[in-house]
From TrEMBL:
The keyword Nucleotide-binding applies. The lineage of its organism: Bacteria, Pseudomonadati, Pseudomonadota, Alphaproteobacteria, Rhodobacterales. This is Probable nicotinate-nucleotide adenylyltransferase. Pathway: Cofactor biosynthesis; NAD(+) biosynthesis; deamido-NAD(+) from nicotinate D-ribonucleotide: step 1/1. Signal peptide: none annotated. Keywords: ATP-binding, NAD, Nucleotide-binding, Nucleotidyltransferase, Pyridine nucleotide biosynthesis, Transferase. Its EC number is 2.7.7.18. Belongs to the NadD family. GO terms for molecular function: nicotinate-nucleotide adenylyltransferase activity. It comes from Litorisediminicola beolgyonensis. Gene3D superfamilies: HUPs. It comes from the Bacteria. Pfam families: CTP_transf_like. Residues 194-213 are annotated as: Disordered.
Length: 213
């Protein structure tokens, strides 16, 4: 039986195609589950890992405690191909560039793909070492209401125009040498954590944003 990695806690086989969906998941919702299933199908992935973040470095307030968000994520996403992970807390990383460098070193031979919604592609150039992220792993972007068009003309999309893989060839993405990214026009779902918190169905955290290590 395969053993989990002592630091990341993940069990991943060399050669497998693994999507990484980083998120605050504050709370997790059906939109996350939907893009995960679409990513598995469209990019031909074997697995998806939900990296439940200690806190988005760009957000002013911290989220609900990690354990609470992990437990809620397990309820929303019950699929043997999907792992709910606290790897970032274990590694002590918060910036995605650092997380990816550590995961790639810990899981050599795994074909990682960074997954995100179109809203994150729109502001990707504000992320720490964003060019390094694109130099490390292929990136799969999933359409999201309100951001589908803006994302495709964003700073990142324009700067890395030549690295774009056409949607029809999405299954090539996990095998592509970085930089490579692909935008897929999946059916869109409107769910958002902000809206769920605004409806009072999940408490708004009062915690300060966690400090970067
Ligand atoms: N409905 C959705 N459609 C497409 N992508 C989504 C959707 N909901 C979340 N995502 C993507 O999932 C990842 C994690 O999202 P996150 O946990 O921040 O949820 P969120 O609903 O965007 O939260 P918030 O409203 O607090 O910003 C991000 O890459 C985000 O773009
Ligand atoms: O590394 C960064 O600078 C960075 C800036 C913004 C967001 N991220 C990551 O993007 C993922 C989605 O964040 P969020 O809050 O939109 O769910 C999550 O894994 C964050 O850690 C990372």
């Amino acid at each position: 039986m395969a053993l989990s990695h002592p630091t990341t806690g993940l069990t991943l086989s060399p050669g497998s195609r693994v999507g990484l969906l980083g998120g605050s998941f504050d709370p997790p919702h059906a939109g996350h589950a939907h893009i995960t299933r679409e990513a598995l199908k469209r990019f031909g992935l074997d697995r998806v890992v939900w990296l439940v973040s200690p806190g988005n470095p760009l957000k002013a307030r911290g989220p609900q405690p990690l354990e609470r968000r992990m437990a809620a994520a397990r309820e929303v996403m019950d699929d043997p191909r999907v792992t709910i992970s606290d790897a970032e807390a274990r590694l002590g990383t918060q910036a995605t560039a650092d997380t990816l460098a550590r995961l790639a070193a810990a899981h050599r031979g795994v074909r990682f793909v960074w997954l995100m919604g179109a809203d994150n592609l729109r502001q990707f150039h504000r992320w720490e070492n964003w060019r390094q992220i694109l130099a490390t792993v292929p990136v799969g972007v999933l359409a999201r209401p309100g951001d589908r068009i803006a994302a495709q003309v964003s700073v990142t999309a324009r700067a890395f125009r030549d690295a774009r893989i056409p949607e029809e060839a999405a299954r090539r993405l996990p095998f592509a040498d970085p930089p490579a990214w692909c935008f897929v026009n999946v059916p869109m779902r409107a769910q958002s954590s902000t809206e769920i918190r605004a409806r009072g169905e999940w408490p708004e955290s009062t915690a300060p944003a966690p400090k970067s290590s």
